[in-house]
Amino acid sequence: MQHNHNGIFDLVATGKLSLLEELWKGKDVNAINSSQETLLHIAAQHDQVAVMKFLISKGAKLDIRDSQGRTALHRAAEMGNTSATKVLLQNGADIYALDKYSDMPLDLAVQNIHQSTELLHVGAHINAVDQKGLTPLHVASQQGHPDIVSLLIRREADISAKDKQARTALHWAAAQPQATVARLLLSTGADANAVDKEKKTPLHFAAMGGHGEVASVLLARKASFRAKDMDGCTPLHYAAAKGHLDVAAVLLSTGKKSVNDKNVWHTPLHCATRFGHLESVQRLLSWTGGTGANLRAKNNVDKTPNLFSVLSNDKNNKNP
């Protein structure tokens, strides 16, 4: 129940325990503010351990949710407040509580670059998943936190774990410009050619995002430059379709036979012309590492690449 206890909330936030005890008579320990936060939420957020112990002794409920579906443990973990986290866990706070965004306390700690050793010591499942199937390692890899990734791997996080789209932590690192994390995952055994539900590898994601350094890291670890997804697209198809010249250059320097590979519809040159990427067209045609792109190659409807369409900059086509 919401009450006008702003003064009490201020005392909790600033850790004024003596004054809080003096004024406590008749107060509701589980009162909430306008954000549906309890006094315990506020104390945990500000790492006011003595106040937290007082509130718990007065019957504070540990797992009340605020407007974001977060418990006091979420708040402590989010702020990296180790002492507050320890108090809550010692008193039975739910370590696997999910907020409205499907984040557990450990997820918030990872997102905010807090090492969360207390959560791990007390027993947070290192491979626990949220509603999207993401583990803490997926989250840390996506956000580019190598220290957290290292910690999780040392605690035996599953580097091969897949989310609901069958994507590994390496897929997530490759989808972002997270070359350092990609190197770390690969050095500890991550599969450079793991495929998701659409048969996309991490290299496909690096190509789609235009992440040349990540592509280089993956190729150095034997990622297949000719891997095809469910539509028959190689990474070069995506690099060409999106005009990512740096990725195309990396792929062309490695994939000596991939320049004319055809997906369900097109070659990379078809893709570059359809999406109006003149520089990509020039790169494909002038490539000197082998036979250049074939101007006479036909797509699924027997059409050759139309160089005039480059000028139309037609980006309404869905598929590369």
TrEMBL record:
Q: Which domain of life is it from?
A: Eukaryota
What keywords tag this UniProt record? ANK repeat, Repeat
Gene3D superfamilies per the UniProt record, alphabetical: Ankyrin repeat-containing domain
Instruction: Please indicate if the UniProt record lists Repeat as a keyword.
Output: yes
List residue spans for each ANK repeat. 35-67, 68-100, 132-164, 165-197, 198-230, 231-255
The keyword Repeat is assigned to this record: yes
- PROSITE patterns cross-referenced by the UniProt entry: ANK_REP_REGION (PS50297), ANK_REPEAT (PS50088)
Q: What is this protein called?
A: Uncharacterized protein
Protein source organism: Scleropages formosus (Asian bonytongue)
